[in-house]
Amino acid sequence: xxxLALKGKKSEKDMSFLEHxxxxxxxxxxxxxxxxxxxxxxxTLKNIIFDIIILSPRSPDFITARLLCKLGxxxxxxxxCINQRPANLINITMAGQLTTHITVSLIAGLIxxxxxxxxxxxxxxxxxxxxxxxxxxKGAVLISSMLFFTGVLFGYFIIAPLSVHxxxxxxxxxxxxxxxxxxxxxxxxxxxxLATGLMFELPVVVFFLTKIxxxxxxxxxxxxxxxxxxxxxxxxxxxxxxxxxxxxxxIPLLLLYEISIFxxxxxxxxxxxxxxxxxxxxISTDTSIVPSKQ
Length: 294
What we know:
This protein is an all-alpha fold. The protein is built from 13 helices and 2 strands, in the order H-H-H-H-E-H-H-H-H-E-H-H-H-H-H. Strands 1-2 form a two-stranded parallel sheet. Helix 2 (17-44) packs antiparallel against helix 6 (114-125), helix 10 packs parallel to helix 13 and helix 12 crosses helix 13. The chain starts with a helix and ends in a 5-residue tail after the last helix.
């Protein structure tokens, strides 16, 4: 039994290139299985996925719309009352609703399986890390998943309803009536949610870039102004063209950038302490083997 355990526990360092590929293949297979299983679950929960989740941001009863409308009443303005007339959604192809159902289920499976996919890739890459790196990176999957879901929720509750309100209410002429294709609506909502979810991964990305020496706190502080411009451009791309939505996305991204600088500085300080400790150990070892003069 012990021999089997040792054989099964063959060190990744001793594995050949083809064995590494085989290992990666199984991690990918398990990730795909998780996505497919959760996709099937989402497919069976059609009423919840569409009526309660996907189509809610266009409704005046959506929590964001109600809170903004109450805020508008406090400041005596109707501008903040969004989506008071829900956008008319239409389907223009015979198989459109079926393909939309499948596409949305796949996206739901990808979002829900995100922690599993991260965990599988973490299991593949973790053997290459040093023991101390593995120790301090154990929470990477949990933190990454939390940041991703926070970003998705931020996009869903804040950006999506504002985006739907602006784009569905905008008209070039009173002669043109907005009848929005269901695919267009879902594409807008899902792209916003996925984009904000991925952008909220900035601190994790900076952490790993700092670990491999690509990014330093000095670099991030020096190019802070450039980063602000990039953040503004990114926010402008994923939000409707109004200042209010732009500010709502830019503020958390700027906060995440400042948090990333703090994380970067902590990682660099820790690496410096480890280097100093290593050098002190080397000096102590060298002096201990030098023969003392009689």
